[in-house]
Amino acid sequence: MPSLGAVLERRLCVVTGKGGTGKSAVAASLAIAAGRRGMRVLALAMGDGDGLARHLGAPRLGPSPEAFGDVHAAVVEPASALDEYLRHRIRIPHLGAVARIFAAVVDTVPGIRDTVMIGKVVHDSTLPAWDLVVADAPPTGQVQSYLGAPETIAGLVPGGAVRDQAAWLRSLLQDPEHTGVVVVATPEELPVTEAMAFRDHMADTTAVAAVIANKVLPEVGFDAAAIAGIAPGPALEAARFQLALTEAQHRHLAELRPDRVVSLLFGMHTPDETASRIADLWELP
Amino acid sequence: MTGITLVMGSGGVGKTTVAAGTAALIAQSGLRTLAITVDPARRLADAMGIGQASDPTRVAGFAHLDVAMLDAAAAWDDIARRHADAATARRLVTNPYFRAVADRFPSGQNYAAGETLLHHAESGSYDHIVVDTPPAEGGSAFLAAPRRIRTLVAGRALRVLTGPRLPGRRLVYSVTARPALKVADAVLGGRLLEDVAEFLLDLSAIYPGLARRSRAVEALYAGAGLVVVVTPDPGPIAEARRILSHPSGATRAPRAVVFNRVVPHAWTKAPPAPPDPVGANLSRWAAEAARHEALRHSFSSHTGVTPIPLPWLVEPPASPLALADLMRSAGFDPGLS
């Protein structure tokens, strides 16, 4: 298999997947891998930052980037993202009154609210301070409205600075050298269905940089014939469970055709240990 | 009065499956039961005999169990038709912003589930309704949705756009005189502000009705039993603890916490395994079983609730009958009959 290191050579990686697939772990692992390479990397949580914080071994994330090991991390908060959008990108005067009007519009027109959130992530990915921005994005179902927000705006807003901003965002999200999406799935029915629907739906909006299958069972050195003579008990039960689950996983993996698989880690691990182990994935051939 | 069970938990923990099993168990006790479900896996949808229909459908093999899919868009169209005059409702249901509230606001989807629940509770056709909650933003957001929707519709945004004076149509003619609006108008380009204001004006027409209905939804939630679903993973466990400590959840104990996808604790008690592949496999799974057990204990000591373990199955049963059997044998008792 070719190395997945090229995934890190973009400026922005957006990580998504169905809930429970481990997307925060994979997002953290990308940031850790980039940090190990000596890259200046910012990991951004869109929405609840608890998952990303846990996997980076951080107590909690605030709106300004803080260093945790080799990685900087922050959470994108809607209110501060809106403030930054108005001050620095739309550059409007009379901030108080206009901001109140704008907040009303943002509450009402989701295309604008979504564009403010994804705009913060894309904007940070253009700053010279960072070689790479990794976004721990919402689950597959919701992330499409973020990635598609600039296009929604183009259809709703006839002109002005908001439309110009949206056009700029769209050009960066559609540029495969700037932005790539990493889709995470576990080898089960619903996560695979969602990942594949996302891949088809996103085809002409944003490039999918990698599809990762997470929590895949490791291969074991026995088959059904080899355990035929084992006495009933835990060893036989665990062996049968392993073989049956492996077979079901293979079926789902054949459908998903992931770029790489990540093994299920057995036993007790802290979330940052898990992320650190997954980080090897981005370097190994 | 109709009894309510809300099934909550993070995305991917098996809420839909547990909701179907819970509803099947309750229906088997003789209560006329409805399961309102969101986005079931294909196998489960097939087994329950639901297409995309949002109207209740009888589940094969059950005398008292119906299932209905949540259709958020249709629920919001009903809200508009119920609370606004015909012309306003027509404008609303075709308005792109209204469509966005219905389809894309997490609060909009959450609230639609509440409205659908209230509608069926008022019909008198059911003794008990089980709601599989939408995945967006987790359970605490589900309970808060009625209040959030009131805030959205209350007209705060409208007042900001129009000042204290309640405008007629062609609103922007009266308001662009204000310098802040002029700036905002330039930034947003032309008609957008006017479109938004007109939409908000239409939306405010449904406020009195929506306020009343949303309080009735909150009353249903306050009297509902909770079934919280977790898997042995830190994210879902944190979410379950948030749900149990939510202000509107704290007043009552959950009906049950289901610890889903647990491997048998007995595997940790096996004698030392021989150093062959089969033995190594048992050691790995025993470590996993020990981790699940430790998480279950720490959950109990933090919340005071003893979770019910549901085994990790290669393919969970798809039929409601088999799910009911599975949950009964795990010791789950809806405690209603």
Kindly estimate the percentage of residues of chain A that lie in beta strands according to DSSP: 15-25%
Helix content of chain A: 40-55%
Q: What do we call the CATH topology of chain A?
A: Rossmann fold
What form of chain B results from the Cα inertia axes? elongated
Order the strands across the largest sheet of chain A as they lie in space: 3-4-2-5-1-6-7-8
What does this protein structure show overall?
The complex is a heterodimer of chains A (285) and B (337). With 285 residues, chain A is of the alpha/beta class. Chain A is built from eleven helices and eight strands. Chain A has one domain (5-217, 256-282): P-loop containing nucleotide triphosphate hydrolases (Rossmann fold), CATH 3.40.50.300. In chain A, a hairpin with a 2-residue loop joins strand 3 (66-68) and strand 4. Chain A is elongated. By secondary structure, chain B is an alpha/beta fold. Chain B is 55% helix and 12% strand. Chain B has 15 helices and eight strands. In chain B, strands 3-4-2-5-1-6-7-8 form an eight-stranded mixed β-sheet, sandwiched between helices. The longest helix of chain B is centred in the C-terminal third of the chain and has 27 residues, at 277-303. Chain B starts with a strand and ends in an 8-residue tail after the last helix. Classes of the chains: A alpha/beta (285), B alpha/beta (337). At the A-B interface, helix 2, helix 4, helix 6, helix 8 and helix 9 of A face helix 5, helix 8, helix 10, helix 11 and helix 13 of B.
